[in-house]
Amino acid sequence: MPKDAREVFAQNLRELLRHTGRTQADLVRELGLRQSTVSDWMSGKKYPRVDKIQLLADYLGVNRSDLTEERSAPKVPGTREWLREGLVARGCPGAEELEDHQLEAILESMDLLVRAFVEKKKSR
Predict the structure, then answer these.
(1) Quick one: the chain helix, strand, coil %, rounded to 5?
(2) What stretch of H or E contains 95?
(3) How far are the Cα atoms of 68, 76, 82, 100 from residue 95, in angstroms, in the given order?
(4) What is the pLDDT of residue 49?
(5) What is the pLDDT of residues 95-109, one digit of tens each?
(6) How many domains does the chain have?
(7) SS3 for 110?
């Protein structure tokens, strides 16, 4: 039986927050949202407007459909599946044939780059 759109959105949002290590409080603080609004989304009471869905998708590094569509497991940023899908979508030759250890090496490199940027920003 199909789930209600609000319930699907709430489940996907909770799962993506969990996988990215973020909280409701982070959404409120970093995106300037009201606590009651975020709480209503998280509980499936209300469904956000399209502009808010896009804001959340951008913040979480996913497509809007990862928030709005029922799926067995959302593509979580930082996973091998997410990386492979992104490389294929961008037309990277051979992306489909990359082995798990190769994808892990790319993800580790990405983490190092992010850490370097964060450190540089802190030192300013």
Answers:
(1) 70, 0, 30
(2) none
(3) 27, 18, 12, 11
(4) 96
(5) 889 998 999 899 889
(6) 2
(7) helix
DSSP 97: G
Rounded to whole angstroms, the Cα distance separating 110 from 119 reads: 14
Residues 88 and 102 sit within 8 Å (Cβ to Cβ): no
Q: What's the CATH number where 61 sits?
A: 1.10.260.40
In a domain, 40, yes or no: yes
Contact 86, 75 (CB under 8 A): no
Q: What is the pLDDT of residue 91?
A: 86
- Residue 47: inside a domain: yes
Say if residue 1's pLDDT is above 60. Answer: no
Q: What percent of the chain has pLDDT over 90?
A: 48
What distance in Å separates the CA atoms of residue 35 and residue 33, rounded to the nearest whole number?
6
7-28: per-residue pLDDT in tens? 999 999 998 898 888 999 999 9
Tokens of 86: 């992104």
